[in-house]
Write a structure and sequence with these properties.
The protein is an alpha+beta fold and 311 residues long. It contains four helices and nine strands, in the order H-H-H-E-E-E-E-E-E-E-E-E-H. The protein has one domain (35-299). It starts with 16 loop residues before the first helix and ends in a 12-residue tail after the last helix.
Amino acid sequence: MQVAEHKCQGPRSAFTLVELLVVIAIIGVLVGLLLPAVQAAREAARRMQCSNNLKQIGLSMQNYHDTHKRFPPGAWNEANNGNRLGWQVFILPFMEQTNLYNSFNFSHNNYTGVNLLPAATAVKTYLCPSNRVKVNQNGQTPGSGENPASGMAFTTHYYGAMGPKGINPAIPGGATLFSHDPNPTGHGGYSNTGVLFRNSRIGMGDITDGTSNTILVGEIAFEAANCYRSWVRGCSGNTIGSCKNSEFGINVRPYNGSNNFNSVSFGSEHTGGCQFALCDGSVQFITQSIDMPVYFGLLTRNGGEIAMLPN
């Protein structure tokens, strides 16, 4: 009589092909579910950092005003031996950047030459982390365009609000234009109904619309804006680097490379709108769907509009 032999099988040492494919599929599903959440969390952190940047800029503006009894000029131009630098330079001492401020030659009548050397230093407070364009787009190599020979000039993503331009929707008839200086011609001229503009000297007492209802600085940080220049650049000829008109809505109009450099839209890579520092030092996110009359009203300092930020 033969006795059947029973062989005990030990534990398997590996997955079968089917099991492995199932595990890979499950991992793929989990990654697909988690990745958008991770990206959203990262963008939320970047947006918070951007808000902090604008908060620091707003507080620096307040401290500048306390010292000088007015906000800094949006930009000097070449008139009256102006140095053609922008407000981003003038508030440096109030941002704990005194050494960088002292590296400028304010007797030099241009933002180029010796005054371009500090542009190779990145001021992180002037850069929105959601925008990958960090350097000047006028010149691709050190020593070209607006780049010093020592390296590439960094840019800024925060610009002064010169005020709205075009037809004023608050006045019946649809034919009344906002006040602006069209000379010199080209690139959209210069609005002067905001707080920061060419050779501006605006104080709190001039902001009769209310400091909590008036935009001071906004971000132009959408990568397609195509207007990024050296962060030290102010006003020269018919262009201004440190401030912008507001002729269109948020995230609408980039620089076309020809004739609208002064009127690039405020905007950002943040979903649905961009952030602004107001004249009272607060920071607000404004959606790109805001009604244009309300938006324009927030951009004037003394237009008399009934314009309040939407909740």
